[in-house]
Specification:
single chain; 134 residues; alpha+beta; GMP Synthetase, Chain A, domain 3; 3 strands
């Protein structure tokens, strides 16, 4: 079994969920600040994965209705990650708040592609229970 395939511990899951809630609250209140007037209209924090050593957290975000490219949103959030980490540290109690690393959540895009594939006539025909007449 590969070490990378190891399931996260209950502590990792709990801390990830606490960070997700804290960041969601920060984004909803509009508490993000960037010196170049970067602002995000409440990105959706879909998941936070915390490393086993609890030093790093990968924050997966999506923004369904953004007029800004997701690359710009991710880049902007990573540039203010230290500030966001400080805000998270004030909201939840941890001995050491993990460093935040933002990434775009691709799961919604993948699900849409699978949905599109499954709705193609050829695929529908192949997966239907009907047997063609011969």
């Amino acid at each position: 079994m590969s070490h990378n395939l190891k399931e996260p511990s209950q502590r990792q899951l709990r801390v990830g969920e606490e960070i997700r809630h804290a960041l969601s609250s920060i984004f909803l209140r509009g508490d993000t600040y960037h010196p170049e007037n970067f602002s995000v209209l409440a990105p959706i924090v879909s998941e936070v994965r915390v490393s086993p050593d609890m030093h790093n957290a990968t924050v997966y975000i999506s923004d369904m209705a953004s007029r800004v490219s997701m690359d710009d949103v991710v880049s902007g959030l990573n540039s203010i990650a230290g500030n966001l980490r400080s805000q998270v540290a004030r909201k939840i109690y941890l001995k050491r708040t993990p460093a935040l690393h933002f990434k775009q959540d691709q799961s919604f895009d993948r699900a849409a592609k699978v949905e599109t594939l499954l709705n193609q006539p050829e695929v529908k025909r192949d997966i239907s229970n009907e047997v063609p007449d011969e």
